[in-house]
Amino acid sequence: MTAHGHAHAAHHGSHTHGLLDGSIKRSREGLRAVGLALLVLGLTAAAQALVFVASGSVALLADLIHNAGDAATAIPLGLAFVLRSDRAERWAGLAVVLAIFASACVACYEAIDRLIDPEEVDRLGALAAAGVLGFAGNWWAALIRGRAGRRLGSAALIADGDHARADAYVSLAVVASAAAVALGVEIVDPLIGLAISLVILRITWYSWRTVSRR
């Protein structure tokens, strides 16, 4: 083989090796972001579950459903990064958008159910604290996913960050619900739930545009 052939082979091998390393690095960074967000949301949901058992709040139950759905999106996202597949990542992004839409549907259903059949809620202080915890946990997860998604150019992670941010707004509704019940204005709780549902639907549309463009 000529010197030119050796040089070309060496350059080609180095180029391929660089691409492989970049792919592996991206996969590891994506998995790290997904895993950390899953840990944060798992701990948040566990703490909220304890408060739900004590308070019986339907609003908090809805927030638990949202957090569980948000945490579950780590499964398709993690698989996409393990496979290092653009196609798998796009499908994961679509799964995230569907999860956001499902969250909006659950929030809307719970709000309408509370309008039709109001229920007494106990432990209002603990309920408000659970709402604050839910907001903090989801907002932290949103920052982790959003920053990693923009850094790695992952539309799926960006959409999942939007999902966590939507659930943070739902958690704030739990705080508002506790305040309204304490003031004796129970009707405010389901009305806030309906407003939050519209916010989540708006984020669903934004996330869909993000995923479809990329």
Poorly predicted spans: 6-21
How far apart are the termini? Answer: 43 Å
Integer tally of domains = 1
Report the CATH topology name.
Answer: Alpha-lytic protease prodomain-like
CATH top-level class = Mainly Alpha
Number of strands: 0
What is the ordering of alpha helices and beta strands? HHHHHHH
Radius of gyration: 21 Å
Assembly type of the chains comes to single chain
Second-tier CATH architecture: Up-down Bundle
Query: Count of helical segments?
Result: 7
Describe the protein in words.
It is a single chain. This protein is mostly helical and 214 residues long. It has one domain: Alpha-lytic protease prodomain-like (Up-down Bundle). It has 7 helices and no strands. The chain is elongated, with a radius of gyration of 21 Å. The chain starts with a helix and ends with a helix. Mean pLDDT is 76; it is low at 6-21.
Tag the structure with descriptive keywords.
mainly alpha; 7 helices; 90% helix
Quick recap of the structure?
The protein is mainly alpha-helical. Helices cover 90% and strands 0% of the residues. Residues 6-21 have low confidence and may be disordered.
Explain the layout of strands and helices.
Layout: H1 3-55, H2 58-72, H3 74-83, H4 86-116, H5 124-152, H6 155-182, H7 188-213
Helix pairs in contact: 1-2, 1-3, 1-5, 2-4, 2-6, 3-4, 4-6, 4-7, 5-6, 6-7
